């Protein structure tokens, strides 16, 4: 009697079976190529930062300033803290020891930022400078988060701890009382804020590096002033102040000079020489001053009409910039700050410094998504700061700005929103639908054939 046997999956293999046996995989070696990796050999760069100039690179012309001095800085910092905290005659010079302690804590945090934060996109004048800028931005964001949980009266009283002269209501000034086009009225409208307008748009041109971007933002801001003048009277200006003095004179002059500076930096030959290779006192002084100029320059080509992704990015960036422009007007009105108060000026200067690397990181993130895996730290933190300002303003404004938007303003922004949605639908949606239908028809014909 013949019996039929079958091999189970767990039965041993016979010699006559044809089996392809793969060679055993090599055991992975610990470390890198068998070498032990120590904690102090770790590389702080990450894959998404390995993009020029996002990688940690040194300015070889001043190599001395790029040597790590973390322990030296820690020693000096602790020595300074010990001297100030333990020397009685130094403490007596300050009227409020709690304020000195707060300042010391802030300086300590900025020192940690300078030493331990990741490098940003810029290497001039030194990466440590931009790490400190990031630390200042983080401190401001933390302060905004704290204020978000306070009511408006408490926030105003807290501001008096920083400046005892604050806490007093300020009258809102309107600039549209006499709009007759006369030499006296125009001359009265020209003040220090005209220079501030020009300097501000010079800075925006250096940040955005695009003529059309600046012009659209300039016109959008004037339209926003028209729309919000029922809430803030200082937004009310004469028509010639809006479109002639602001847009065509101050904004244009600042944008033009800023873009000319960008064009110069774009074509400027960058050949850096170290101080040791520079001879003569005048040449060495020039070399020191050149340390505060860019190491290299990247021209921005936003191409907002190239794709739906670029279009959305440009629109959102314009909205964020517009919010960053409007936020200080509401904050100074709510907290009773004069337009020329140091807090207002410091906020404007701080946002400018933070926006320089932030927009550079955003441009890299949008135009090189394969290498820029995630949004840069400057860009992420500045976006969070502007949105937190909006939350603070929204909370504190409840019950203060009860007058609704005028009907013509609502209609104007509704039409503008429809156009913003209609343009990408026609520019990108219709061609995509046509391509899809053509591809679908070709596939159907191929199946029927």
Structure overview:
The protein is globular. The chain contains 14 helices and no strands. Helix 1 packs antiparallel against helix 3, helix 4 packs across helix 12 and helix 12 crosses helix 13. It starts with 69 loop residues before the first helix and ends with a helix. The protein is mostly helical and 449 residues long. The longest helix has 42 residues. Helices cover 61% and strands 0% of the residues.
Q: Features of this protein?
A:
449 residues, 14 helices, mainly alpha, globular, 61% helix
Short description:
With 449 residues, the chain is mostly helical. It has helices spanning 70-86, 88-93, 97-116, 127-148, 152-162, 183-189, 192-208, 211-228, 239-267, 281-290, 308-334, 342-367, 377-396, 407-448. Helix 3 (97-116) packs across helix 4 and helix 11 (308-334) runs antiparallel to helix 12.
What topology does this entry show?
Layout lengths: L69 H17 L1 H6 L3 H20 L10 H22 L3 H11 L20 H7 L2 H17 L2 H18 L10 H29 L13 H10 L17 H27 L7 H26 L9 H20 L10 H42 L1
Helix pairs in contact: 1-3, 3-4, 4-12, 4-13, 7-9, 7-12, 8-9, 8-11, 11-12, 11-13, 12-13
Give the strand tally. Answer: 0
Which runs of at least 5 residues are low in confidence (pLDDT < 50)? 1-20, 37-56
Helix content: 55-70%
End-to-end separation: 58 Å
Class computed from helices, strands and strand pairing:
mainly alpha
The whole-angstrom Rg is: 30 Å
The biggest sheet, with number of strands, parallel, antiparallel or mixed sense and barrel status, is:
none
Could you spell the SSE succession in H and E letters?
HHHHHHHHHHHHHH
Arithmetic mean of pLDDT: 81
Tally the helices. Answer: 14
Strand content: under 5%
Large-scale geometry:
globular
